[in-house]
Amino acid sequence: MLNLNLPPAKPLIRAEKNEVLLVTNADLRESANVECWPVQNKFEAKLEEALSKRCGCTAKRAHLFKGDKGHGFISSQREGSDLFATIDPDAPVIVLLTAWQYSHHLAPSLAKHNGPILLLANFDGTWPGLVGMLCMAGTLTSLGKEYSRLWSANFDDEFFYNGLESWLKTGKIKHDTSYLQPVTSAHPASSTPAWDIGRKVGEYVLQHKEIMGLFDTFCMGMINGVFPQKALVDIGMPLEGLSQSALLVEMAKVPHELREACLAWYELRGMKFQFGTDPAKELTRDQVLEQCAMMIAMARFTQRFGLSCVGVQYQQGLAHSCAASDFAEGAIGSADRFPIPDEAGNIIRAGKAIPCINEVDMGTAIPQTMLWRLLDSLGLPAETTLHDIRWGSEFEGTFYWDFEISGSVPFEHIKGGIAGATGYRQPAMYFPEGGSSIAGQGKAGRLIWARAHYEETQVYLHIGTGHAVELPAAEFERRRRATTYEWPLLNCVLDGVSRDQLMAGHQSNHITVAYVDEDKLQDVLRAFVAQSLTQGIKTFVAGDAAKLL
Question: Per-residue confidence at 418, pLDDT binned at 50, 70, 90?
């Protein structure tokens, strides 16, 4: 006879009448959670005030403050799973996000929760919650789970109140996402020469494959950045899974003289490294030399496996083994790059960017690699990068986004190029082994932006255009200090897409950008859309891109 011996079930945490359950998620790194907790605590009080004074409702915290940890965040998947095992599956749940969060802590439980779910973020650049909310939103979309999303700077505006009241009454919030327009192969632009070029590039990809080489494939809780294998195979962009342990082995083979030659090459061209002597708090030459070895090793793997792009997971892996990957990632993604020799002394892809997929996010790997192939085949600058949708605010009556990647971009994306770049030590809160960023002001120019996500195994792609601007020095400095000072910052306007529209419809914390000259923009947009459709991707154009197409 079988004897079942499972742990006893705990009493369910229920929401009473006029009550909602509150949970909050954040980082796996406890140092970050402690640093971010005061902001979360402040916004919990703001939410409670809004619920009681405006909505006649209260929030019941489903999990306690952890005195031994110094914060009240969920900080692991086990903790999140155990919590939701004790939550009434029909209870209304608000997930309040004020910091970067690892979506996999909660997403598997949220995906099976029956009650209405609200992802609520503060719209602030400091840690920030809006980035975490967009990541969780994209994750739940990819898991096929319905949810609502809402954001506000101070939880005191009518947009916030109206959304909160709608969710409390109906379990849903309806946002305007009409800025996204579907495109098919029957579009009037399909008769243009540019469309034909894009179709041929798409056919090339399907026939020859763009192999995406990623060193480990799950980073920082981004379930939305891990695509099903079938989804990648169907669009001609299969994965070459690589191990970061192999990267460390390859880095160790790079001789000291070659590392020194690499660093000297960038110093000679004017990059300014903020060197110090204390490796725990300051940037050191040894840290950058290790990053040079990483770039050289990455390029050699790219050649060895015939990769179209390469990406390093780094977080929660190499972060405790070597200097940060960022300098290597930005530098390898630049066409203007230290000449990297293979083992036989031949220079690897001289004069050509190697697309680098930061945080191994496949949702950016797809458009980055597609744009690189298209632009390179047209003889145009082909550097691409991703950015976090970090924040944004008005300046002289115009809303400018602050797109800020957590460490580096290709030098061609920075005002002044290599000479316009500064290398700061990566923040010790996240990067214990240090390493240089590639920081600077994003250069002015026209751009194409994109983001891929998946639903079941179908790939979707959002494509738009924008204007990158160089804000005055004082305003740019204000924004740097409101976000992360050590990281590169791009200010831009997305054509025909408002702040709230992007927040309502974007399926990721990340966005891909590539610069395209004004006189080429329409043709490149048409070709990119045609390429996407040819590769079997469900394609949407955003805002004014629909008119330009």
Answer: very high
What is the model's pTM? 0.97
The pLDDT confidence band at residue 315, using thresholds 50, 70 and 90, is confident
Give mean pLDDT, residues 498-511. Answer: 98
Span between the terminal Cα atoms of the chain, in Å: 70
- What the chain holds in terms of domains, given with CATH numbers, is 19-170 (3.40.50.1070), 183-548 (3.20.14.10)
H or E element that contains 148: strand 148-152
Which residues pair with residue 412 across a beta bridge?
Answer: none
Output the average pLDDT for the chain. Answer: 97
Closest CA to 381 of 357, 417, 345: 417
**pLDDT tens by residue, 447-500:** 999 999 999 999 999 999 999 999 999 999 999 999 999 999 999 999 999 999
Token representation of residue 474: 């004082």
Which of 409, 437, 432 has its CA nearest to residue 322? 432
The DSSP secondary-structure symbol of 318 reads G
Main-chain dihedrals φ then ψ at residue 487, nearest 5 degrees: -110, 155
CB 97 within 8 A of CB 503: no
Sign of CA dihedral 431, 435, 440, 445: negative
Place of tokens 């605590």: 41
- Sheet of 309-312: strands edge to edge? 239-242, 212-215, 309-312
Residue with token string 């742990």: 7
| CA–CA distances in Å: residue 295 to residues 283, 298, 356 | 18, 5, 10
């891929």: which residue's tokens?
A: 452
Distance of CA 20 to CAs 53, 60, 164, 165, 252, Å? 15, 6, 12, 12, 54
Predicted confidence (pLDDT) at residue 316 exceeds the cutoff of 90: no
Cβ-contact 104, 316 below 8 angstroms: no
Please, what's the b/e burial string for 510-533 (b: 16 or more CB within 10 A of its CB; e: otherwise)?
bbbbbbbeeeebbbbbbbbbbbbb
Residue of 387, 389, 440 lying closest to 411 (CA atoms): 440
Tokens, residue 294: 């990483």
475: nearest Cα among 395, 392, 403, 401: 395
pLDDT exceeds 90 at position 317: no
